[in-house]
Each structure stands twice: as C-alpha cells, then as structure tokens.
Amino acid sequence: MKKILVIAIVILASLTFVGCKKSADDGANQQPPAQGQNDQAPAPAPQNVGPPTVVEDGKKPVDHVTKYFDAYKEGRLEDAFKLQPAETKAKQPEKDFIALRKGMPIDDYKILPTQKTGNTEIIPVEYDIGQYGTWISTWTFEKKDGKWTALRYIANPKG
C-alpha cells in the first residue's frame, strides 16, 4: 500500500510540475474575463490531441462535468477518462490516469458558480482528495457550430 501511495505522490507531483510548466508556457492558467468584459477567443488547443471531447447532444457543459465527477467518485475511471478534454487525454495515457485516480479517490465534489462569456463557459469544481487536501479543477468549454466542446481543465490545490 505504501508503494502505491509513493507512486501516486510522484505521479501527482510530476503532473503538477508539467501542468505548471505548460500553463506558464501557453497562458492557459490566466483568469477568465469577468462577466461583461469584451469576449475573447479561448487559447487554441495543442495540435495532435485526437478528436475533440464533445458534450452529449441536449446536455450542457455542467452536465458533462457532473458526469465526469460522478464517474470519478464512483470509481468508474474508464468512463471518467473518456469525458476529459482531448488535450488532457493526450497528456496522460488512460492506464496512468486510472492508476493515479485509484490512489486519490474522492468522496464528494461541489460545482462552483459558472462563468459564461460569449461562446465560452468556465466551470470550477471543488473536491477533496483526502490526505492531498482540497483541489479546484477549472473546466473550459467552447460552443462552436451549435456543439459544446471540452477544451481543457486545470487542477490546482485550493488556497
């Protein structure tokens, strides 16, 4: 059990470092514009990330995020992996995603107020990972040609 925990910590630390480095490089960790400011196009997704993750017909981005966190919370990690933005799936193989999340289960989550600006929706979610503390994942969606696409999410420790 200790070996799995150590592996999970190393993977989490690596992902945090890579995420911070990537955020510094591409500006993806910038604060979204406040409601009422001029609309700005979201940063383009990296190339070669595979097909986009599109929100199910008739559903809203918040429904997609809820479906992801329900799957994560219930241990249906293959389902959760598929719901991630294509950019995120390209950065971490499914087996690594599953191994990491198995070592970091969540009991509950809370969707925080959504920010809507033009064709972009930003949805922050707060959740507790036990000994790793409380985290916030901020999901970004874009509506194009009548369909919502999950562009990215950034996870950071709260505080």
Model description:
The chain is an alpha+beta fold and 159 residues long. The chain contains 5 helices and 6 strands; from the N terminus they run αβααααβββββ. It has helices at 2-26, 61-73, 77-83, 86-91, 94-102; strands at 53-54, 109-111, 115-117, 120-128, 134-144, 147-157. Strands 1, 2, 3, 4, 5 and 6 form a 6-stranded antiparallel β-sheet that branches. β3 and β4 (120-128) form a beta hairpin. The chain is globular. The two termini are 29 Å apart. Mean pLDDT is 80; it is low at 3-10 and 12-43.
Which structural category do the helix and sheet elements fall into? alpha+beta
Radius of gyration: 15 Å
Report, as a whole number of angstroms, the end-to-end distance.
Answer: 29 Å
Q: What percent of residues adopt helix (DSSP H or I)?
A: 25-40%
Order of helices and strands: HEHHHHEEEEE
Strand content: 15-25%
Q: What form results from the Cα inertia axes? A: globular
* Structure summary, number of beta strands: 6
Number of helices: 5
Largest beta sheet, briefly? 6 strands, antiparallel
- Mean pLDDT figure: 80
What ranges have pLDDT less than 50 throughout 5 or more consecutive residues? 3-10, 12-43
